[in-house]
Design goal:
heterodimer; A: 171 residues; mainly alpha; 7 helices; 44% helix; B: alpha/beta; TIM Barrel; 8-stranded parallel β-barrel; 11 helices; 8 strands; globular
Chain lengths: 171, 308
């Protein structure tokens, strides 16, 4: 039995599914300031959640960033500026230039992206396919990715919080 | 021919295109449209009609586009994702196509924070990239966003997109343009160019990616009317790059000659961007100063407009 099949069966259990989502949501909130859109693209965007963008831009920055700051709230960094920096550090700008993110499925808002992925509700490929470069040994890639996540997380904690932003779209 | 609009024909024939812009009034005055259209007629190939620019309520883009058709001008309607979800966008575009509108510029739209209704709820169901893809699929595959096939005539638009060569992250901008081309853009209108060297640098990268062969790029230009406007754009308009040199030129010219100086700067920029490889035309945004358009196009050597 494959991992996917096991997970798929496990998610059918309501208690497991709820508990899993609770853990997933809290973890992603702490690490990525996740908005629980249920259509996760974190593995394409250098582990910065693009749904933090006041315009919910999933395919790149709007034309308004000034000196790397968001036009809507100048005290914050443009999410896409952060994404550009993070993907550069991971040497994966191909994820930004080649990928097209389709319109999100808003029915999935507030649900577990992992469960959606296992259940085949998302078109995005598996996290492992996009996350790690094929030409690099996994052992070298894993620490790099973990280090970058922690680095982004540090920026998140030390920077001004998007959560207090008065004009944030009510997702 | 994708839509067979005048703008498309001018560009396909290899002419240097010129498009204008018309800001609809914040009222129901038809006379304002007629007056502004008078300044633009015969001086540009197509006229953009903004869709509640800077999130300020104005007459709707499609309705003004229909009026322009009646006045003998070719409209390019703008569609933003701020106010409509995918259902409303598709419905409006079907109507626009049926009314005879052939050019469409796809935008994400300014955030409502900048407008006169900052307490409004935005939509942003799609972003500009997804909008482009949706419109292209409606045209080329006769398919709605949901995948359902369209029975009957499909809306055929010459699809445009915006690009800002100056906003951060600068290195990402050509790649983003490439994505827009892949998503379905037939022509591009850029943010207003004041910093020509930076724009040339951007265009070089665009040409390196081979995009100038796949899409028509129109450089945005605009005359500056007052010193205050120059200063305001330099400091407060997001994503705008106004070099100090421009502000200084406006400041040093005597007060009564400032409008003249603003037009002079605009004409110079048009002549400079025309020399940059890959630039297929200009997009003249004389916002709330449409009466300057005849003079600018005349002096920049853009007249008479080609008849195709």
């Amino acid at each position: 039995m494959s991992v996917d099949a096991i997970l798929e069966r496990a998610f059918q259990n309501r208690i497991f599914s709820q508990a899993f989502f609770l853990v997933e949501r809290k973890m992603k909130e702490w690490l990525f300031d996740c908005q629980s859109c249920g259509n996760c693209v974190l593995s394409h965007t250098g582990f910065i959640c693009p749904m933090r963008c006041p315009k919910s831009q999933r395919n790149g920055p709007c034309g308004g960033a000034m000196d790397g700051h968001c036009e809507v709230d100048i005290s914050k960094r443009c999410v896409w500026d952060e994404i550009w920096e993070s993907t550069n550090r991971l040497h994966r700008i191909d994820l930004l230039t080649n990928n097209y993110e389709g319109p999100p499925d808003w029915r999935l808002y507030g649900t577990s992206a992992w469960e959606n992925m296992v259940a085949g509700r998302l078109e995005s490929p598996s996290i492992f396919e996009t996350l790690f470069r094929k030409d690099e040994p996994l052992l070298r890639e894993v620490p790099r990715v973990v280090f970058q996540i922690l680095r982004n997380c540090y920026n998140l904690i030390t920077g001004p919080s998007w959560r207090r932003y008065e004009g944030r779209p009510p997702l | 021919m994708k839509a067979g609009s005048n703008l498309e024909k001018v560009l396909a024939a290899g002419h240097f295109a010129a498009t204008g812009e018309l800001g609809p009034p914040k009222s129901a005055d038809r006379e304002v449209i007629e007056k502004k259209a008078g300044y633009l007629k015969g001086h540009v190939d197509a006229v953009n009609i903004t869709d509640c620019q800077t999130a300020v309520v104005r007459m709707s883009s499609i309705s003004v586009g229909t009026m322009l058709l009646g006045l003998g001008l070719e409209p390019t309607i703008q569609m933003t994702c701020r106010d409509r979800n995918r259902i409303a966008i598709q419905a409006d575009l079907l109507g626009a196509a049926a009314l005879g509108i052939k050019n469409l510029l796809c935008l994400t739209g300014d955030h409502q924070k900048f407008g006169n209704h900052p307490r409004a709820k935005n939509v942003f169901d799609l972003d500009s990239m997804q909008l482009l893809q949706m419109v292209k699929a409606m045209r080329d595959e006769k398919r709605f966003e949901c995948g359902e096939e369209m029975e009957g005539r499909e809306p055929r638009f010459f699809i445009g997109a915006a690009a800002n060569p100056f906003a951060d992250p600068f290195e990402y901008r050509p790649h983003r343009l490439a994505k827009k081309v892949a998503a379905g853009a037939d022509f591009i209108q850029t943010q207003i160019v004041f910093n020509v060297p930076k724009f040339a640098e951007f265009m070089k990268k665009v040409c390196d990616l081979g995009l100038h062969e796949k899409v028509y790029i129109l450089a945005g230009v605009s005359p500056i009317k007052t010193l205050g406007a120059a200063r305001y754009m330099a400091k407060f308009v997001p994503g705008m790059d106004v070099p100090d040199e421009m502000v200084r030129r406006m400041k040093e010219s005597p007060k009564e000659k400032r409008e003249e100086e603003g037009i002079q700067i605009c004409v110079e920029i048009i002549q400079q961007v025309r020399e940059i490889p890959g630039v297929a035309g200009i997009h003249l945004m004389a916002i709330e100063w449409e009466e300057a358009v005849p003079e600018i196009t005349e002096r920049a050597g853009l007249l008479p407009r080609p008849q195709v």
